[in-house]
Amino acid sequence: MEPYRPRRSVLYVPASNEKALAKIAQLACDAVIIDLEDAVAPADKIAAREKLAGILANRPDADHNGRRCEMVVRVNALSSEWGADDLAAVAKAEPDGILLPKVDTPRDVLEVGDVLDDNFAPDSVKLWAMIETPKAMLNIGAIAELGRDPASRLDCFIAGTNDLIKDTGVLATPDRAYLLPWLMQMLLAARAGGLDMLDGVFNDFRDPDAFARECAQAAAMGFDGKTLIHPSQIEAANRAFAPSAQALAEARAVKDAFALAQNSGKGVIALNGRMVERLHLAQAEKLLAKAAAIGA
């Protein structure tokens, strides 16, 4: 089993916002996305790009538990006037990941991977993909399948819910009723490809109760975490996507039961009146690994 890397809380930080950048080391989020795309005005994009090397050279150190905030950069689309230069600069700076906007087809991922290989970017630089267009939804299975090939570098999907709403004209409701089928389709594709799946942003950071409900909804659907637009959302996201005390107790009970000598080699056992299979043991071990990684 590969080491679990938590991505419960993933905060967008504009590359042009000096004040926000200075606070990164103090934040309790699992990952930060340094944004060169939507959060940066066209007139500021070149200046923001030029800051990247310094930002990533001063990335936060690991905490006392050995956990380090993941640093990802969202570049402008390669089809834009800034995209190629963004990618060249990011490849040299070697972040943990590069977030690609407007991914429509597998080719959009593969082309960026080729550029990284040509620039000798280490294999540790992963690719994340925004799923935010109708075309991406139609091609999502083929895009996700790249996750099974380490050479593609693809590691994570992010739901671009705001753009999907804009491009489709679907009604945005508090319960996200019209988005749920697409969100579940993303989740299924991500799991088929061995990828992490992050929920889209919640726009009203002044409504913590509604934000908490949306986090709980995404966690119940199986998402790994949520993208955020404000530091005030970090704590609630970390809490929502962490295992509950009850879930941890049940996982420990399953693991302990299979560890008993009388259950050695058994595929199915009885535990507290329930049938428990080894697939439940695998789920329990994954949950316990997640808890250990976040210090729960």
TrEMBL record:
Organism in which the protein naturally occurs: Mesorhizobium salmacidum
Official protein name in the record: CoA ester lyase
InterPro entries registered for this protein in UniProt: Aldolase/citrate-lyase_domain (IPR005000), Citrate_lyase_beta/mcl1/mcl2 (IPR011206), Pyrv/PenolPyrv_kinase-like_dom (IPR015813), Pyrv_kinase-like_dom_sf (IPR040442)
Every HpcH/HpaI aldolase/citrate lyase domain range: 8-231
Cofactor dependency: Mg(2+)
Family designation: Belongs to the HpcH/HpaI aldolase family.
Gene3D superfamilies, A to Z: Phosphoenolpyruvate-binding domains
PANTHER family membership: CITRATE LYASE SUBUNIT BETA, LYASE BETA SUBUNIT, PUTATIVE (AFU_ORTHOLOGUE AFUA_4G13030)-RELATED
Pfam families (alphabetical): HpcH_HpaI
Keyword terms: Lyase, Magnesium, Metal-binding
GO MF entry, a single one: lyase activity
